[in-house]
Design brief:
Helix content: 40-55%
Mean pLDDT: 77
Number of strands: 8
Number of helices: 5
Low-confidence stretches: 30-40, 144-164
CATH class of one domain: Alpha Beta
Order of helices and strands: HHHEEHHEEEEEE
Strand content: 5-15%
Largest sheet: 6 strands, antiparallel
Radius of gyration: 67 Å
CATH architecture of one domain: Alpha-Beta Complex
């Protein structure tokens, strides 16, 4: 036996033919595929889809969100409450201001009313005093006129001039006693007159009934010149028969008449308002 017969060979064992053929086929196929791909050009890249992972809502996060929402709602409620309170305060302030203004107005009105009432009371008291004085004067003049008439009758019973003087004195006394009375159209006394009612009332004291209106009074009697006037004559303004104002001549170049609502019943000079004419009734 050879001395090398039992030494193992270092050569690799031969592969089987089938495995060699398979490997050759695979290699050839791969090379063929690479060759075809290279010839066809670069391969199209597939679209890349990126996936984003959302955070997971934990129970603690939900509690925080709920607490934040509740706090926001509370702030809104607080603001609404504050707005309501501000509106109520503003309304209360306006109401108080209005009430104060109304109270001031009422106080001023009350003060004015009290002042007016006081002034009216004083004026009425003054009028009563003046009326009492006029009444006393009227009584004195009437008594004097009666004495004068009696004396005249005793000395000259048929003397017409004595009778005229006596009646004229009564008319003049009555007219003067009404000075200071008010004027009111249509009034017939005893404390308020219009022009013709005063003349009518004066003549009524001696039993003479004159017409009620100035137009008729201006023609009731004998027309006389303004240069020849006697106490008791009726003065008129305007044309005879259409006069718009009348008064009583009281002597001394003066007359008494219920003039207007501003002056009332006054005694004035003929120059104050020159009459148009005069009539004599007595």
């Amino acid at each position: 036996m050879s001395h090398t017969a039992h030494i193992p060979s270092h050569r690799k064992p031969r592969q089987r033919a089938s495995k060699s053929a398979l490997r050759a086929g695979v290699a050839g196929g791969v090379l063929s595929t690479i060759a075809v791909a290279g010839a066809a050009g670069p391969a199209q890249a597939d679209p890349v889809t990126q996936t984003i992972e959302m955070p997971t809502i934990t129970s603690g996060f939900s509690t925080a969100v709920a607490a934040s929402a509740q706090a926001t709602q509370q702030v809104a409620l607080d603001l609404e409450t504050q707005a309501d309170e501000d509106a109520a305060a503003e309304k209360a302030a306006k109401t108080a201001k209005k009430a104060h203004a109304e109270a001031v107005r009422k106080a001023e009105a009350k003060k004015k009313a009290e002042a007016a009432a006081k002034a009216k009371a004083e004026a009425e008291a003054k009028q009563r005093a003046e009326r009492a004085s006029r009444t006393s004067e009227r009584t004195t003049l009437s008594a004097s006129s009666g004495s004068s008439d009696s004396g005249s009758s005793a000395s000259a019973p048929s003397s017409s001039s004595s009778n005229v003087s006596g009646s004229a004195a009564s008319i003049v006394a009555f007219a003067k006693a009404q000075v200071g009375d008010a004027y009111s159209l249509g009034s017939t006394g005893p404390n308020s007159w219009d022009c013709s009612s005063l003349v009518q009332a004066a003549y009524r004291t001696v039993g003479i009934d004159l017409p009620r209106v100035s137009q008729a009074q201006s023609t009731f009697g004998t027309q006389v010149s303004l240069d020849n006037l006697q106490p008791g004559d009726i003065l008129y303004w305007g044309s005879a028969g259409s006069a718009y104002h009348v008064a009583v001549y009281v002597g001394g170049g003066q007359f008494v008449g219920a003039q207007n609502s501003s002056t009332g019943t006054v005694q004035r000079s003929l120059d104050y308002d020159r009459p148009t004419g005069a009539v004599r009734v007595l």
